[in-house]
UniProtKB/TrEMBL annotation:
Record keyword rRNA processing present: no
Keywords noted in UniProt: Hydrolase, Metalloprotease, Protease
Official protein name in the record: Zinc-dependent metalloprotease
Superkingdom as given in the UniProt entry: Bacteria
Stored SUPFAM superfamilies: Metalloproteases ('zincins'), catalytic domain
Keyword set includes Translocase: no
PANTHER family the UniProt entry points to: HYDROLASE (PTHR39420:SF1), PTHR39420
Amino acid sequence: MQATATLVDWEAAGAAAAALVPPGPAMTRAEIEDLVAELRSCASLAVDPVAETSGLEAGEDGGAVLVVDRAGWARANAASFGALMDPVLSAALQRQKAGRSGGRGTPEGPAALAAVTRAVNAAETGSLLAFMASKVLGQYDVLAPDGGRLLLVAPNVAHVETEIGAVPSDFRLWVCLHEETHRVQFGANPWLAGWFRGQVVELLDDMLEDPASSLKRLVDGLGRLPDLLRAPAPGADAPAGSASGGLIDLVQTPEQKERLDALSAVMSLLEGHADVVMDEVGPSVVPTVAQIRARFGARRGGTGPVDRAVRRLLGLDAKVAQYRDGARFVRAVTAQVGTPGFNAVWSGPGTLPSAAELRDPAAWVARVHG
């Protein structure tokens, strides 16, 4: 038995999520086929406007574009998480065994107990994936084992466009503009995917270095749950690049939090840049873009008290802040040095903004452009 088999069965996690997540809005077969066909068409239509607006081109290097249902999204992400995390989890488990045995290693526990542990972890992971699968409109899956790919979640697009009263053809293209920008970010800058995966792996490995200490920090931090669940005051502004990560905040050391803040600054850049591009393409391509932005922005914080609480626990409030903070940075830098000057950000790891620079775009311009 492999060491990681006692931790998570990723295939079972994907299957559990597929079983748990509701299928989406009721649609006839013809409506589903039309939706899928239009999303594929919109993904193609988004390529030229994004390239023209961003000054970046991905070509084939950005990976495939796939239209999926909620179950398909969950299974795809379970496979990606497994490819990323199995080596990290395996190394952490081996360190733990070596520590217990003075470096000599210990035999695997009883097979029945290992199977139960694996099944419980798969069910818990599947529950989380099921929740996320009902929320995500699209995703550039940079962690996919065979290279990046763009996923468009058809039932979620249909649900949201109906909920906000959007013109379907406009909304579908608008979503594709955002996701195509992510495909371009990584396709036009091949170093970025490897760097991003490396940063995530290093952070996970560090957090799993001492599981006992992480558990103690979690227990000690449970008293902060009321604060974590408490919604911010209307209009409250969290510092850029340092939005709450939800439950993960409870198990991090100060050093780990600093590293996560640095990674969050880059994620803010990616999300904010995609938001700016999708909006700046403008009404010549998406006639109702202003209406869509206003209505969609109003729903990003969650649709009800339970939904908002879960989002805060999972750190999804941080995701919302990333769009806002990153867009602010992109617009400020572009106003100073234009799109070509902004695109210097993609030159390599050394030109990515820090959390402090995300809050102070002029500091990034001074450092990179002199």
